[in-house]
Design a protein that fits this description.
single chain, two-stranded antiparallel ribbon
Amino acid sequence: MAALSSSLLLLAAHFLTASFALELNFYRNSCPGAELIVKQVVQKHFQQDPSVSAGLVRLHFHDCFVRGCDASVLVDSTDYNIAEKEAPPNLTLRAFDVIDDIKAEVEKECSGVVSCADILALAARDGVALSGGEDYALPTGRRDGTVSLMEDAHFPGPSFSVQAALAAFQTINLDLVDLTTLLGAHSIGLCHCGFFIDRLYNFRGSGLADPHIDPGLLDTLRHECPFEVVEIKNVSKDPKVFMNQAAAASSSSSSSPFTLDASFYRGLLDYRAVLRLDQNLAFTDLTSSLAASYVGDPKLFLAQFSRSMIKLGSVGVLTGRDGEIRSNCRSINNGI
């Protein structure tokens, strides 16, 4: 009898967990227009600034890497708490205004129903689609976290080795394929010079440039990022360059610094990656082979990028009765 009771409890726990899992069209009854509202607002911002897609993807990544995809990165600091967004790696994040605009419109349609975590995940998906990626089906049902602490914000840095970055990715159950593929998001958007200035002037304290950088690219980046004007500690004054220099220099109409495509991988194989971590993908067997595969079959990259984004968006999610549905994405409902 005791064994039967235990089995029934385990079975009940299984169904309880399953009932709170993410699912496609989670808001089909409670807020059927939610996903369309997100798409329309993102499209409006994209038309004004196509780099917003990169901003949304990066914002989503930084959210999911800390405490899971719970919109904790959106929370503002208070007199009593310094929030995630104040951590140094997060100071260059943007597109918070896009999330604010979406939340305002969604609240008009169905107040207190759609989480900020889902809004951010959906907005990143729509940004990907507008930039040439797939409009992948994204499970929803995330709830918002109630904790946001600056000291929790740790990420793989732009100068990490592939091995060190992989170790960080593995802490959130992402693998080497996910790492290599998600770095393909660097085919769109901009990068502050401070993130790679050492590659241009003082690589590993040598007083010289990184030897694994195309000479033409080195000249271009030194012109855009003069050593004397780079402000690593003041992001508002730090110059920016296109992340995808291969596309920026291309005369092809099918690729641009705002198009999510495999040109990023062509660039790193040609030693034209901006960040050291990106360039390091060319120097390990599996990552360089995968990069070559993506160059040879760009649709393979887009398909795997969708899979890796869905996987990223499922990290550490709160569902069911966990967390909350924030009324304002910038603040916990009852304070911190």
